[in-house]
Amino acid sequence: MSSRWTKAVLAALAVACIATSPALASSKRCGASEYSYAGLQGVKRAHGVRGTLMPLSAPDVKAGHVAGWVGVGWAGGGANGRDEWIQTGMVAQQGYTKARIYYEVVAPGAPYRYAEIADSEVGQRHRLAVLEEAAHPNWWCVWVNGKPVTAGIYLPNSHRGWEPVATAESWNGDVGACNLLSFRFENVGWATRAGGWWNGLNGGYLFADPGYRILHPARQTFVTLSRFTG
Asked: What letter would DSSP give residue 154?
């Protein structure tokens, strides 16, 4: 889902206060950009990122998809500017009646990997994480509800390579669709060492593209919502 992330995060860092500027965010049409984001960007390089995600409403996707995910890496984030990332989260494409837990991996020279694992009901929490293995630098696993769901995945030059991200995402299907999304992120944290040693993800950048907003009721907790109705 995150092949657009490098452009989005640069824009977010340039206007990090947008999440607290309702007038600015609501003054622009939703779906004006192909991909829109609302979430939290860490500022320190991490060995993993985690969060407990919960869909707050049934999917309402006019075109494309919506997702909420945690991950590291981005387009052009690998060695020699090659695409490289790993993420896991919840996704709903057009026609879905429930969000689906998924993971996605892009690594230089390796086949694209994407898998949907299970449904997630509205109001149902799932603990999701990507984590570098303790004894194997540059090898990562996807975790769902405390259990690994992949074998080790090799991501070259990823050791201490990337900042953690927890975000909602909307793809407008290239038709300017105003997709509705509502995800709650709880216990968002980053791994200070391979294999674990989790800390709360504090001191990062909250961001929200036009048409979407963030509520931030507690530390390591935020809610992503649409600014418009279906």
From this structure: E
Task: Say how far apart CA 63 and CA 105 lie, in whole Å.
Answer: 23
Rounded-to-integer distance, Cα 67 and Cα 162, Å: 21
- Ordered by start, the domain boundaries in the chain are 5-226
What would the DSSP string read from start to end of 111-151?
A: --EEEEEEEE-TT--EEEEEEE-TTSTTEEEEEETTEE-S-
Model pLDDT for residues 33-50, shown as the tens digit of each residue: 899 999 999 999 999 999
Nearest to 179, CA basis, from 226, 109, 120: 226
Following DSSP, what letter does each residue of 54-95 receive, concatenated? EE-S--B-SSSEEEEEEEEEETT-SGGG--EEEEEEEEEETT
CATH topology of domain 5-226: Jelly Rolls (2.60.120)
Cβ within 8 Å of residue 81, ≥6 positions away: none
CA distance 227 to 138: 39
- The rounded Cα 134 to chain-centroid distance in angstroms is 23
Give the global pTM: 0.88
